[in-house]
């Protein structure tokens, strides 16, 4: 599901909306609990072991995740701080991503809103700023694949 971009969000930023078949508290929990994050974080071909995930659900809290490319074992570390936290409505982070191909970490913000639609939840995700070359690396595709994995993880816990 894609919405019209609100004004002020650059074309090179990632802006995605997606509906999930679970109540907001359930979807929010998949972002808050390391074991749940490990079930879906990262695009197809990547894993994020729970032992490398830290998610402190409070303003000023620490966030850390390591995605591992399954074919090569290459690690991509993300470190961050929680800037905003309103359970179960909003999580915003300041992130630093260190990929092996980059000499310097890429810094950006990630803001995720959880919209209550009864037995369904709509996530609105905004990540950036990015340079145009960074967007070419497939950030939108990566989030889409991650959200496909999140859909599957949610389905696994539903009756």
From TrEMBL:
Which residue ranges does the record assign to the Activator of Hsp90 ATPase homologue 1/2-like C-terminal domain?
22-154
One Pfam family name from the record? AHSA1
State the signal peptide span. Answer: none
Q: Where on the tree of life does the source sit, at the highest rank?
A: Bacteria
The family line of this record is: Belongs to the AHA1 family.
Please identify the protein, giving its name as recorded: Uncharacterized protein YndB with AHSA1/START domain
Species of provenance? Microterricola gilva
């Amino acid at each position: 599901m894609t919405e019209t971009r609100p004004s002020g969000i650059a074309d090179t930023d990632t802006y995605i909306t997606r509906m999930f078949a679970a109540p907001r508290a359930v979807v929010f929990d998949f972002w808050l609990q390391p074991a749940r994050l490990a079930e879906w974080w990262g695009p197809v071909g990547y894993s994020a072991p729970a032992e490398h995930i830290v998610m402190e659900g409070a303003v000023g809290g620490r966030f850390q995740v390591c995605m591992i490319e399954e074919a090569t074992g290459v690690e991509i570390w993300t470190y961050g701080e929680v800037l905003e936290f309103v359970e179960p409505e909003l999580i915003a982070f300041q992130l630093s991503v260190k990929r092996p191909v980059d000499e310097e970490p890429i810094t950006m913000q990630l803001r995720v809103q959880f919209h209550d639609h009864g037995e369904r939840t709509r996530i609105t995700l905004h990540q950036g700023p990015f340079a145009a070359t960074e967007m070419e690396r497939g950030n939108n595709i990566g989030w889409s694949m991650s959200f496909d994995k999140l859909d599957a993880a949610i389905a696994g816990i539903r009756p």
